[in-house]
Amino acid sequence: MKAMSELPSGFASGTSHCFRFLYSSLVEYMQLAAFIACIVMSSLRLKRQDYVDARNQEDDDHKNIRQSLNIFYALVFSQCILHFVTAIVARPSERMFVVCLKYKLDLWGLLALTRYLQECLLKCISGDLREAVNMDLVSFAKQMLNSNNSLDDQLLGIRILDHLLRIKEHKAMVLTKIRSSLDTVEKAVYMLGLKKEVEQDTRGHAARVLLELAPDLQVESFPGIFQSISSLLITHKATISGSVSNSIRVSISKELTLLGVDILDKLLTNPENRAEAKNAKNLLSKILDITNCKDEKTLDSNIDKMIVENSLDVLRKLVSTAGETGEELRCQVSKNMHAMRNIRKFFIDYAESQPAMLAQAADILACLALNDSARKEIERSHLIIWKLISLLAEDSDEGQESSVRVSATGVRMSAVEALVLLNAPIKENARISAVNERSIMAILSETKLEDMQRIVSTLSDESAEHRIMVAKFLQNLRGYQGAHYGDQLETVNKALPKEMEALMIKEQGKLLESFIGLCMQTCTSGNAKQFTNALRNAEITNDMFVQMLRKILELYKSPTPDAPGIRRVVIQQMNWMMDMDSKYINIFLRHEMDKALKEVAQTALKLENYWFFRFDVGTFEHDESISSILSISPLMQAGGSGL
């Protein structure tokens, strides 16, 4: 982010220092002029030796005048030379000017350095020579910041720290010194909450310092930090009139709001800080209010776009939090009456112009789908579901620029993830719940036949990550057993041969799990003839297909969160095949699949009870464990073996 421009009150608080500096500089230059005049005059008199009129040189009163005046002017000349050299060598103005240029302190830096030299001199006079020598500019700034003398001193301290942090080669050192002082960080946090208009400059510098510190801050060490940050967030839409002062105030408010949002964004990168955010009064509601864009004219400048985009990122981090903290945060968002309305605007009004915001909004929807009340509200919003389907089914234009194509791909990934979690199985796939069926029907009702055809075609055209999510999405849709939407579901059925071909080739891990899951769901929702025809069209024999299933069980003896259900869907596929045709029992026995199933029973893991892992946390737990599915397997019963 570009450094925020200096807030207008910068010099207002330092007027007295400015006059003092100008006065001292004027006196210095007058002294130098006096030294130069004395040097010139004394050198001329020494050269001319015209102390006495030539007619009076032999008088007794003037015999020794030449020697006396030569000594006098020589002393004056030497003393002025010494004073002049001392003034030039010891005079700090030029060196201060060089330091200001090096550290980019601008003109106000001369005031700061003058004060710094004064402090060093006072320490020397008081006998603290070692402390004076060891006091660098950072230590001086911390001393000023933590002083209780005046707001001017505190502003000077925080301003020096802010500008030093902008210098790349010194940034790491300055950050280390600031972090070592808890009082300095606490003071910066306190400054965020200043209310008076003349204190806005101080807030801006404090906010920029905290922005650099935020990635490593533990919120629990600084109670009230979220409230202080929240005070930076201006949620009302300010109207800029013709007044220059009004325009400046609005500009300052926007800059402070952007800084506040950016600090939150960095703080919430640490999951431990999100637990504190849920207890911060009005913070979440302010973030939601900031994301409220009435129309595209609202985003009339880069800073407006950055505020909204970064606010969406903050909201995404909050609702994607794992565990009980995440559940509570998603519940708070779902209860906010404006949350879904604001998200809907990004899908309807800014789909073309703001792809990054659209992708973030889709990510937020995906997380909110984990909350029951939010899921219901999404289901009722036909425009949102229609837009998600349209984004997923959208053709990628090869003629687009690479950056545009990457943005479009990111939007489609976010859209399909939102759809996957929206129609995720609440119960076992074979017996979907009423909640799951309601979600699937809401999606199918907005999916045109041509859209479904394009979505199915992406199973072989898109990236591996995209194919994984599309396969899971279609797997969930195919769990629908109702009498409607037959054409769309038949389109999914027709892709079964391609799915089998993919299984036989090279797919592994998450992609393999998603494809075998889609294959299993298509089979269990169809009939034996459809399965047999698919094998024939894919040129796969029964033995080849069974060998493939056995190989999967051998390769994935210890499933990971990447593919937690891979053995589950293999067993469900086997059970369906044997239920449809008992001949498969003998085929499985011939390939010793009964032994493979016994090994699965002995090595079953808890993570296999979950359908999906998001942020390393299992979601949508299955009703039936692996052991329960194995207990009803005809193959195990045929082998006469207990589990």
UniProtKB/TrEMBL annotation:
Transmembrane segments: 29-46, 71-90
Signal sequence coordinates: none
Keyword Transmembrane helix included in the entry's annotation: yes
Keywords noted in UniProt: Membrane, Transmembrane, Transmembrane helix
Superkingdom of the organism of origin: Eukaryota
Keyword Transmembrane carried by entry: yes
InterPro entries: ARM-like, ARM-type_fold
Matching PANTHER family: ARM REPEAT SUPERFAMILY PROTEIN (PTHR33115), OS01G0522400 PROTEIN (PTHR33115:SF24)
Name of the protein described by the UniProt record: Uncharacterized protein
